Amino acid sequence: MNDSGTMPALLVAPRDAARMLAVSPRKLWAMTFEQTPGLPHVRCGRLVRYSPFDPQRWIDSRREGASHAN
Question: Residue 64 and residue 58: Cα distance in Å, rounded?
Fold first, then answer.
C-alpha cells in the first residue's frame, strides 16, 4: 500500500502508458503491435494493459550512445 492507504496499480491503461512515454495512444499502439520486439503488454480479454514498470525497461533496452550506469 502507498501512503494514502490504497494499493498501487498493477496494470495501467493504454492512455496512462502513452502519457508515461510522452507519446500519443496511436503511437503507443504502433510501438506495441508493429515494432519487433514490441512494448510488453498484458491482454485482459479484449483489453490491453501495461505494467507501470515496462515502459522504463523498454526505454532502457533501446538507449543508444555512450554507456549509461544502471
Answer: 12
Q: Would you state the cell numbers that stand for residue 28, as one nine-digit string?
A: 503507443
Whether 32 is in a domain gets the answer yes
- pTM comes to 0.73
Range of the domain at 29: 14-56
Per DSSP (E only), the strands in the chain are: 42-44, 47-49
Q: Report d(CA 26, CA 22) in Å as an integer.
A: 12
Please name which of 46, 40, 42, 51 lies closest in space to residue 16, comparing C-alpha atoms. 51
The pairing of beta strand 47-49 with beta strand 42-44: antiparallel
Cβ–Cβ < 8 Å for 28, 36 = no
pLDDT digits (tens, 9 = 90+) for 21-40: 999 999 999 999 998 888 99
Residue that is written with C-alpha cell 500500500 in the block? 1
